[in-house]
Design brief:
The complex is a heterodimer of chains A (669) and B (219). With 669 residues, chain A is mainly α. Chain A has a domain at 619-668. Helix content of chain A is 71%, strand content 4%. Chain A has 26 helices and 4 strands. Chain A has helices spanning 2-24, 30-53, 77-100, 110-125, 132-150, 159-189, 194-199, 204-222, 231-237, 240-265, 271-294, 298-326, 329-364, 375-378, 380-393, 400-413, 421-453, 460-463, 470-488, 490-504, 512-515, 526-550, 574-584, 586-589, 619-639, 647-668; strands at residues 58-62, 71-75, 592-599, 607-615. In chain A, the strands form 2 sheets. A two-stranded antiparallel ribbon of chain A has the order 1-2. A two-stranded antiparallel sheet of chain A has the order 3-4. Chain B is mainly alpha-helical and 219 residues long. Chain B has one domain (3-217). Chain B has 9 helices and no strands. Chain B is globular, with a radius of gyration of 18 Å. The chains are: A mainly alpha (669), B mainly alpha (219). Chain A: GO terms for molecular function: NADH dehydrogenase (ubiquinone) activity; oxidoreductase activity. Chain A: This is NADH:quinone oxidoreductase/Mrp antiporter transmembrane domain-containing protein. Chain A: Residues 130-421 form the NADH:quinone oxidoreductase/Mrp antiporter transmembrane domain. Chain A: InterPro entries: ComplexI-like_HydComp (IPR052175), NADH_UbQ_OxRdtase (IPR003918), ND/Mrp_TM (IPR001750).
Amino acid sequence: MILVGVWYVAALSACALAALAAVLGPARGRPALVGTITVGAGALAAVAGVAAMGGGGWQAWLPEVLPLAGVRLAIDPLSGVFIAVTGAVTSCAALYGVGYAKDGHGPAGRVTQAAVPLFVASMLLVPAAASVSTLLLTWELMAITSLLLVLAEHRRRAAVGEAALWYAVMTHLGLVAILSGLFAFAASAGGESFAQLRAAELSPAMRSAVFVATFVGFASKAGIVPLHVWLPRAHPEAPSHVSALMSAAMVNLGCYGILRVGLDLLGGGPAWWWLLVLAAGAVSALYGILHAVVAADLKRLLAYSTTENMGLVLIGLGAAGFFATAGFDALAGVALTAALLHVVNHAAFKTVLFLAAGSVLRATGTRDLDALGGLRTRMPYTTGLFAVGALCASALPPGNAFISEWLLLQSLIQSGSVSGLAGVVLMPLAVAVIALSAGLAVATFVKAFGVGFLARPRSPAAGAARESPPAMVGGMALAAGCCLALALAPVLIVPALTRPVLAVVAGTGVSARDLILAGGAGAISPTLIAAALVLAVGAVLALTRAVMVRRSRRVARLWDCGAGPMSARMEYTATSFAEPLQRVFDDVLAPENDVDVTPARESAYLVRRVAFHARVPDRIERRLYDPLLAVADDVGIRARRLANGSVHRYLAFGFCVLTGALVVLAVIE
Amino acid sequence: MTEAIYVQLLYLACGAFLLTGVLVLWRRDLSAIIRLFALQGLALGALILVLAAYQRDLALALVGVGVGGLRAGLLPYVMRRALAAAGAHRETRPLVNAATSLLVAAVLAMLAYAISRPLTQLAPGPTIRAVPVALTVLLVGFFVLVTRRRALSQVVGFLLMDNAITATAFLTTSGVPLVVELGVSLDVLLAVLVLYTLTDRIRASFGGTDLDELRELHD
């Protein structure tokens, strides 16, 4: 239908307009102007995406825009999901950004303000790309604009530069993988438009090579272990609304890429592809949530939680692909619905959480949970909205993550009918992984909310916090509203996902009806559960009140072992809260504790100072990346000897390479 | 002009072109090198004129005269001035001695013939068969650039490469348009003028133009 195209083009034009306004507009009121237009762009994109999910399609072929290749765009229901999610996240984040940039806190400069709408536009273009060159171009545009935004606060903190470097390197290595995979694909298909790729007849080895290469590239964008290292660095250092955009919208596109190339363009493949995806997802889910549970930096915690959730989505994708290749289309449909629903849910709650974390950071100047606390009275709105996000993120019944994870579990549990080792052994393992990660997610977000917002402030900065401006609260409230809607009425959104799912899973004999779990033991009603919970909580409150009213009230000092009065130092901190879990998973996390005792003047018994340092380093980074970087450094230092400053030597290098290449050419001929 | 005379004249010009290029490796006297370069410019101009005469193309003949004038007249003139200003007239101890250089030139010629075989097979004809000659001069020019120490002999190496590129262009195509050749020639002239100024500066600042003495400047 033409409508999708109209909305979509309008959204892109609004992005362009916002970027233009950022460059040409007056410095005064620039964030408000740009933010308002971007909010509109996000809303338009969301409408376009929803319309596309409803079955409207749109195609465009612009040969003049890009020399030689041209730009080819096509929106189908699957792209619609990701466009809609990106649009919704954009609206919330842009509204929030208006307030965030106020009073010199956030980035209000021309470049950073213009980069936000451009970043959004590139994220809208990626799922609509319908040829290899268009996809790669928009993918790179997305990487560059997001890199600019990560760098926005580089003058304030030195860590920003390092984080951006990691991000730049990882995203470009990912691009190299995607580029080589897709170019090889296009070369053997004899054309680069997606229609030609779908029709291509490739050898199995070639197909596998293309899949693995693109999977590695897309997984690095999705923050999948072991390619996740950029995520816990870049997300904390970016401005918070940018973190929200990256974590809730950009990483999804990694999953989109896997889905598009693996299931759509390559049309499924051998089972091991999808078991690979499933395994990567399972490892990421566990590793991500384990690090989230011990993280003391609020935004780092959220970044690791993103790795976990993308891992869950990949479990769903892997299961869907596996079922589809085994011929169980209905099961594949359920798994894929669960995965897409989790993408939507994760986007909703991660937006709230990152925006609220930014609000806290703006008010207190710290992300360290051990220095926060006591924000409930000082920042009531932020606290309430973070609570909504945390509830949704912790995979417990009234939250929205519970629904998608439940659906995912159901699809895996019902895989008993799939014969073979994988079906019997791996699927139950995946079930266990999801259950464990859900449990740890509860602990993570109880910690984040309880330590971060409740109790007494643990630092003067937290004690002096002030509520954020209305625009920021509005942005957060909008996202929290989406969370609640998704949590209470998933019935509305799940049917909308059937068309995108059917677009990818072969769909022979699968009707939309089959995708809804047919009654059975797995059927639940989130609305009823929520209603029951509200009733139960209300009943408990009413009961306690009824009991308490009968007794007379008296004010007394809290029992404090006689040490009193209780101070903020007696509270649980994030580190101490996570300590038992850290002990349980000691072998996996390998935490490092240093105790540094300074005795008082030659005395063995009197101690002047005890310093205790505890940190949980990223082991994958330690074991995998640090040796690689050391080798690269070593090679670099050795290579310096090659360049001794002699012009003749440099020329000789060129001469030798030229003649060498010519000799090789002559021999080959 | 008959076909036979045309081929003979073409190969004569190409032979002169190659010989002057290889002889640059042999001579150590800088003014002799410049003279050889001027002769090569003449050979290049003659080559183009032969082509123009055979094709009865006036524009091409004009290009030939222009190229010859630039490479046999103007560029050697500029270099001679640089030489007079520099004062040092001999190439001090090249990195590879003359005998070895000539052997290397022979190897490079073989390489050029080997790699241009596909080209000659593509369209066998007198001009295409002469392409390896131009490629040999190109490689020899690069070799001069690598092994000679004086700034001026480096310039000559660079110009040898440029001559070879021009010759290849005229041999493989049926005439380069005037505008293109004019642009290229102006570029070359500009490059030489810049190098001339640079050589002058190097000499004024460091008292010599031996490039290997400048290695302390890196970093």
